Amino acid sequence: MTGKQFASVWLREPRKTASPGRSRDEIVRAAIEILDAEGLGGLSMRKLGAKLSAGATSIYWYVAHKDELLELVYDQVWGEMSMPEPEDVGWRDAASVLAYSMRSVILRHPWAADLLGRMPALGPNAIQVADRMRRMFKLAGFEGMDVDYAGSTLTAYIYGMTIPEVAWNSTMGEHEYDPDEMRAMVARAVRDFPDMLERMDMSAYDDPQTVRQVAFDFGLVSVLDGLERRLAT
Amino acid sequence: MTGKQFASVWLREPRKTASPGRSRDEIVRAAIEILDAEGLGGLSMRKLGAKLSAGATSIYWYVAHKDELLELVYDQVWGEMSMPEPEDVGWRDAASVLAYSMRSVILRHPWAADLLGRMPALGPNAIQVADRMRRMFKLAGFEGMDVDYAGSTLTAYIYGMTIPEVAWNSTMGEHEYDPDEMRAMVARAVRDFPDMLERMDMSAYDDPQTVRQVAFDFGLVSVLDGLERRLAT
DNA sequence: ACCTGAACACCGTTCAAGT
DNA sequence: ACCTGAACACCGTTCAAGT
């Protein structure tokens, strides 16, 4: 009757390792090195084993399966996000700092974009950020479930902006391409839609990276304004 | 000197198939059937071949690689999204309808959540939606690059809400679990954070599905309010 | 023009066996 | 308690060969 329990590394006792042999920390560190160097597709259990000069399957002693390993590295990423105590700087500044920080952390670890929103974020680092975010929105004046809803709104925005940005970077990075040729092809795909063509002309000579910066800021301000508006009513 | 071109099915000439043999449509239909039934992990080229009672590798005649196939099915998903002409209903209603429609389409094809924001959306259906969205925000009063920024903001929100929702559904679906047991474990993970614990108590007996509905609406209204605010300044 | 099968170079995971 | 290697059941993709 008692169904299988929800699966997360963080919800089960780890193996009480006396200290010898490899450790989870060591494994996670090695995994992140591989991930930063070769991306999510580059991380295999065999390669990780090799990097630790261990048998390919030794890792299964420390971790039930690859997904658990990914949960572990994922929480490390959450640990890199910086968020001031909302009580110190006020909720809007805290929210902005968190947003920019999340974006830059993910851009630094592009593989993490594939985990964002997909993997349960129940590690200590993730929970700490979640907790601060709750306090932030309570400080702002939200109550009850609205604290939650405001939080989802903000993180949804950040995820939704960051994921495509990373995806774009990686497609562009793989095949280095001729920008003019590409513009011509996209223009072709879009040829029946005057508004879309107009858009292409507009942004033709802007630096894509700063455009994305500005876009992120524009949206963030909008989202925060929108949340502020909810407080008034 | 002329680098490799940006890769997308939509940016290259398809094979001019006279008509005999399999067709792309047929392949895409079969692929979607598999995807709906077994999810993204359930779709392999071999299985797809088998379903078409063809050799495992015949598909490579119609498609350069699996990613192209995914681009094709992805655009079908865009085709299911419904969006009224903004001129008919006004920009805010059009935006809301699109948002709800996107959410429900993705919930219907959960595998598509893994493509959202990752795959170039250059198919005719995706472009049509993008075009309407541009017209929508122009109608609202945005100009220049702001039309784009407003669009990114809205889609970022939708992506960022939908992706985790689907992920959650699928983790919950796989292992059917004992809710009490699970709550206990999560409570344990969160034990040092009084605000997080409070949150768990609060939402203890709510139906998760309606909570997510309400959350989606809350955030959407906030985002649209925030965008409206930008028009005023 | 379209399809095939064999082959290559991988995967994650299980498990009996070792120390 | 920790690690190993072999094995299982898969992958996507290439390519020479067939019709």
Automatic annotation (TrEMBL), chains A, B:
Biological process terms in GO annotation: negative regulation of DNA-templated transcription; response to antibiotic
Limits of the HTH tetR-type domain: 21-81
Pfam families xref list: TetR_C_1, TetR_N
GO molecular function: DNA binding
Gene3D superfamilies reported for this sequence: Homeodomain-like (1.10.10.60), Tetracycline Repressor, domain 2 (1.10.357.10)
SUPFAM superfamilies named in the record: Homeodomain-like (SSF46689), Tetracyclin repressor-like, C-terminal domain (SSF48498)
DNA-binding region: 44-63
InterPro entries reported for this sequence: Homeodomain-like_sf, HTH_TetR, Repressor_TetR_C, Tet_transcr_reg_TetR, Tet_transcr_reg_TetR-rel_C_sf
Entry keyword set: DNA-binding, Repressor, Transcription, Transcription regulation
Protein name: AcrR family transcriptional regulator
